[in-house]
Amino acid sequence: MLCPGARGAVESNSMEPFDVVKQYHEQTKHDFNRYARALGYMDWANQPDPFRRYEGAPLYALPLLEANDKPVSPPYESLFSSPPIPAQPLTLNSLSRFFEYSLSITAWKEYGGNRWALRSNPSSGNLHPTEGYLLIRETAELPLKPGLYHYAPKEHGLEHRWHGSNEIIEALLQPFPAQSFFVGLSSIHWREAWKYGERAFRYCQHDVGHALGTLRIAGAVLGWEVFLLAGLNDRTIGTLLGLDRLHEFDRAEPEFPELLCVVCPMPTLLPPLPPPHPSTSLRAGKGGEQEAPLPFTVDQDLIRHWEHGDWRGKANRLSRDNPVPWEIIDDVTKASWKTSTESSELPWFSSPAPIRELAETEPASVPDSRPGMVSAHRIIHQRRSAVAFDGNTSISAQQFFTMLERVMPHADRPVAQRPMPWDSLPWLPTIHLALFVHRVDGLLPGMYMLLRNGDPALKGAFQQAMHEQFVWTVPNQCPASLPLYLLEDGDTQRIAMQLSCHQEIAGDSAFSLGMIAEFEASLEKHGPWFYKRLFWETGLIGQVLYLEAEAAGVRSTGIGCFFDDPVHRVLGWHPDTRFQSLYHFTVGGPVEDHRLTTLPPYGELRPLP
Fold first, then answer.
1. What is the pTM of this model?
2. CA-CA distance, 381 to 503, in Å (whole number)?
3. What is the pLDDT of residue 8?
4. Which has the closest alpha carbon to 214: 420, 509, 19, 13?
5. Is residue 141 classed as helix, strand or coil in its secondary structure?
6. Which of 56, 182, 450, 516 is deepest in the core (most CB within 10 A)?
7. Mind listing the pLDDT tens digit for each residue in 414-433?
8. CB of 205 within 8 A of CB of 185?
9. Domain of residue 258, CATH code
10. What CA dihedral angle connects 343, 344, 345 and 346, to 10 degrees?
């Protein structure tokens, strides 16, 4: 049961960060007899405002575009096909589209006098702990001054937080393709902790992964490339986003830096570059040729100039009363803080040979029923988190295999040649899928495992750690490129529901899954800061599945509440902690709640016809 008033803390004074992270993960597990600690009731009077604003910062409204306004969205399926979508020029309209498809409001819902917003980026409990920022130089194409902007989703506008030297910003962006700009993400832990208590840090991190996915997909719609600057440390990101200016937060709830991406609207036009830095890698051109090195960090000497310039605005307070303190979240935040700027430890382009036990003949393909010309705009705008499934709807085997293909990063390829959105992550995949298949036509119901990494030793490591009775056979219709294995056939609806905190959505769906991390090996290889990256990868998988479900005519939802070690026991490796389930997901036929009224996202801001 929930523990009212419990705050929790890791005895971290004498512990190494690696041990603090592991202890946090253990302490925040749900079990059949004990949920992770939370407040124990909903303090509605203190619910955080889902919209951060910087009072006193000028707001620049972005154009509110209709579906047919330029730039017009390509078909959703074209995001994953060749040749790549032609790059749109950087204009105020294309910048507006980028934020519309990544972080904006897509609809309002209304019921019983209450009104709440839905956004392009999914969020646990619709609490939206993730904030977005833009760092851009002065360009002739944009009526924006150089500097740092905070994206305000309620207004679909940019708050000008810092007006800095264009020369400094130019120098910072000089190693990147022409017209490139930075987009950053931060987390407000309190927004999730208000409801979910000590487990909130986990949810904030896979929400960052969702948002990273929406950034990359928004870029793909415009023909732009988006790369995670994984070599940066958290202090640098905090400085660039203005989050270390504590006097401008005063009594407001703090934000914590998460990541910085470079967005490249003109990826083929690269300026002359200095010799490669240790934390750079050669990019592969569209034809496979090598282009100039693309850094995964920035010039640290330029960061000291961030104190100069004109800083504007103070963060608004989100809750009426002070946030309930959760010391355990503070402890894991500190322990997972990335202090290094070296990225050489990450295997940017080194990839193992792919594993696959090929069938003697290729299976016959099953026709995919999804319409090929539905626009990405429509799929992005209609994405919703299902609240219930009908327990009847099935999907075809081809639809199921297509969804799984879309979450495969193809680790045997150089990063820049991996499919979107996996070209944005410069590390080898660490997350695999344990699937509970209920209603997939042509596929036996049962438990399956999808291995997303091409490491030849991985299958053997999983087999050794899991139950001996699992059969590890390849389904008959499975494409030869998909490393999917049947573990055990049978009805898994009840066990899927029980493992997901007794939630019927896990059993009433077409299939559900747990996202399984190579937990200990990843932390030992990279360090405790990689704990957050594990969740980012799960969130990115989740965002792909959200859109894929919509494209297949069904719906999906993430499941943050699941019984951690019971999942591990079902799969066979508890108390072994080499592998850990971090996030669950489910896809099926939705039950619509017709009591709710749907309203347009920015109806009040649009002029009357």
1. 0.92
2. 27
3. 60
4. 420
5. coil
6. 516
7. 877 889 999 999 899 999 99
8. no
9. 3.40.109.10
10. 70
- The span from the CA of 429 to the CA of 451, in Å, is 9
Contacts of 49 (CB under 8 A, 6+ apart): 316, 318, 319
* Residue 476 included in any domain: yes
Distances (CA, A) of 377 to 71, 104, 344, 358, 422: 11, 13, 38, 37, 20
Residue 348 located in a structural domain: no
Asked if 446 and 492 touch (Cβ cutoff 8 Å), the reply is yes
Check whether 355 has a pLDDT greater than 50.
no
* Cα–Cα distance measured from residue 41 to residue 44, given in angstroms and rounded to the nearest whole number: 9
What is the distance, to the nearest Å, from the Cα of residue 319 to the centroid of all Cα atoms in its chain?
26
Q: Helix, strand or coil for residue 131?
A: strand
CA-to-CA distance for 58 and 158, rounded, in angstroms?
8
Rounded distance between C-alpha atoms, residue 449 and residue 556, angstroms: 19
Find all residues with CB under 8 Å of 11, minimum gap 6, and list them.
none
Host domain of residue 459 = 382-588
- Give me the residue label for tokens 């490249």: 264
Q: What DSSP string describes 526-545?
A: H-TTHHHHHHHHHHHHHHHH
Yes or no: say if 191 and 128 are a contact pair by the CB < 8 Å rule: yes
DSSP three-state, residue 365: coil
Residue 457 to residue 301: CA distance in whole angstroms: 42
Contact, 7 vs 160, CB < 8 A?
no
Q: Are residues 392 and 301 in the same domain?
A: no
* AA letter at 36: A
**432 phi and psi angles, rounded to 5 deg:** -125, 165
Number of Cα atoms under 13 Å in the Cβ half of residue 584:
26
Strand partners, 433: 450, 515
Residue the block writes with tokens 């939705």 = 590
434: exposed, middle or buried (Cβ count in 10 Å: 0-12, 13-18, 19+) = buried
- Residue 135, Ramachandran bin (φ over 0: left; ψ between -120 and 50: alpha; else beta): beta
Q: Both 402 and 545 in a single domain?
A: yes
Residue pLDDT, tens place only, 51-109 = 999 999 999 999 999 999 999 999 999 999 888 899 999 999 999 999 999 999 999 99
**How many independent structural domains does the chain possess?**
2
Residues 6+ apart with CB under 8 A from 238: 244, 256, 257
3-state secondary structure 203-257: HHHHHHHHHHHHHHHHHHHCCCEEEECCCCCHHHHHHHCCCCCHHHCCCCCCCEE
Is 152 among the domain residues?
yes
Longest dimension (CA), the chain: 67
Look-up of token digits 């407000």? 188
